[in-house]
Amino acid sequence: MLKILRGLGWTLAGLLVLAIVVWCASRMWPVPESRLQAQQRLEARLPAAGRNGYPLLWTLAFDDLDAREREQALADDVRRWEAAPGSNSIPRTLLATRHPELRSRAAASCGPGALDCLAQVRADPQRFADAHAGHQQLHARLERLAEADHFVSPFLPKGEGILVPLPDYGLMVDATSARALAYVQGDVDAALRGSCRDLQLGRRLLPGGSYLVESIIGASLVQANAQLLADVLVELPPDHSLPPECERAMQPMRAEEQSLCRAMQGEYAMSRAAIEGSGREFGGMLVLDRGSTLARVAGNLGWACGAVAMSALEADRPLPVPAPPQHDFGCLSNVMGCVLTDIAGPVYPGYSSRAQDAAAMLRLLGAQRWLRQQPEDPMDALQRLPAQFRSPVRAPRLSADGRHLQVPRRSPARGRDESPWLSVPLQAGAGAGAAARE
Questions:
Q1: CA torsion, points 7, 13, 19, 24, in degrees to nearest 10?
Q2: Which helix (H) or strand (E) holds 363?
Q3: φ and ψ at 150, to 5 degrees?
Q4: Residues 217/173, Cβ–Cβ less than 8 Å
Q5: Sign of the CA dihedral 88, 94, 96, 102?
Q6: Within a 10 A sphere around the Cβ of 59, how many other Cβ atoms?
Q7: Handedness of CA 243, 247, 249, 250 (dihedral sign)
Q8: Pick from 177, 170, 199, 198: which is nearest to 116 by CA?
Q9: Are 118 and 177 in contact (CB under 8 A)?
Q10: Distance between start and end Cα atoms, the chain
Q11: pLDDT digit of tens for each residue in the chain (438 aa)?
């Protein structure tokens, strides 16, 4: 019996030694060079020049504050965030304790992507008038917000609970219906000016925020307001004079404006904070290799930065989003890291093309304006459409009924009702209101 126990002991000791050797070998497993390069691109944070609009964005819901008060409120909230021992809750701004706070109202929403927003407002203008009552100062702040160059957050990510505080973006998105309401009520110039300002805001927010959510909101603002402008302009004379804000906002988007690099750098920074927090937990070091996991995260995110991504954006080709990193020998000692990156990996490819669709909507808007100013049939005029209004892989075409100009949508549909085409009208519909007849 003693021999059996002794033999069993040696066997267990041998297995333990083998497990330690395998674990050590797994920890020393080399990281692919492609992930290391992606990591370098994500850690080289892009510079942000010009005016930072984040103080106004953070305090957007509050009336009757000057710029100094908004900057001070943000600075106070940042200090509270940094001093907090944990990050399990978002620190509501101290302004909420002494100032009335505006809230996004459900009745002001035109839905995801603000599809058919003009038609929705025209069908029930009172609903939208009630939803936007008392928001005049808010709408003016949104116009000022469009003058910012970037929106870099001063809140540094933490590794527990809520990783970083975020503003309330609902007030920005719902403003599209306010511009449509102004048009339906007959204030055409205010509607055009406000929508162009919101379009410009989206263009600045898309590449100039700190995290992916801001790029998503920016792309949505561009697409929603380009759609609204197309629906409005088709009801106005082709030579209708536009406010000065529109000529700048409606220019085709450059590749740099479609880049998600800064957003993915922010996502990488949040992932790094979360990984460092998990690594401090009891036993975490045994199943989480910080360096290997960060490299795997970079493999999920690094496609957004670099010359290859910029070339794809310039040519309007799908971005080269790689498949999530496969499990390898290194995962034996990094079980937690491999599982975490496997969960997050499939989320990002769906967002890669939203900025490209926003740029495509702007090209369609420009093509619509150009076509309506041409004397010949749209089918013939399309043959000489200026290059700035088409891409090498997505040239605008007429719909089957000839009433719309369209290109294929590249981003995944957000609902069963969303068309596979991005489309702008070439002829005014039967529902054109009094504003269009004046």
A1: -150
A2: helix 354-372
A3: -160, 175
A4: yes
A5: negative
A6: 24
A7: positive
A8: 177
A9: no
A10: 104
A11: 666 655 565 555 555 555 555 555 555 556 678 788 888 999 988 888 899 999 999 999 999 999 999 999 999 999 988 887 765 565 578 888 888 999 888 899 998 777 899 999 999 999 999 999 999 999 999 999 999 999 999 998 886 666 788 898 888 888 999 999 999 999 999 999 999 999 999 999 999 999 999 999 999 999 999 999 999 999 999 989 999 999 899 999 999 999 999 999 999 998 888 877 765 554 566 667 787 778 888 888 999 998 999 999 999 999 888 777 777 666 666 667 777 776 666 677 778 899 999 999 999 999 999 999 998 888 888 999 999 999 999 999 999 888 999 999 998 877 777 788 999 999 876 445 444 434
Contacts of residue 355, defined as CB under 8 A and 6 or more positions apart, other chains included, come to 206, 215, 218, 219, 258, 259, 260, 313
d(CA 131, CA 103): 10
Q: Which two tokens stand for residue 351?
A: 């967002």
Length of the chain: 438
| Residue 363 token pair | 């090209």
- How many Cα neighbours within 13 Å face the side chain of 139? 21
Question: What pairs with residue 141 in β-bridges?
Answer: none
Question: Which contiguous run of DSSP H or E holds residue 246?
Answer: helix 244-249
CA 70/CA 164 separation, integer angstroms: 19
Q: Output the CA torsion sign for 427, 428, 429, 430.
A: negative
Two structure tokens written together for 123: 């069908």
Residue 275 to residue 337: CA distance in whole angstroms: 8
Contact 194/179 with Cβ under 8 angstroms?
yes
Give the strand order in the sheet containing 404-408.
Answer: 397-398, 404-408, 421-425
Do 217 and 112 touch, CB atoms closer than 8 A? no
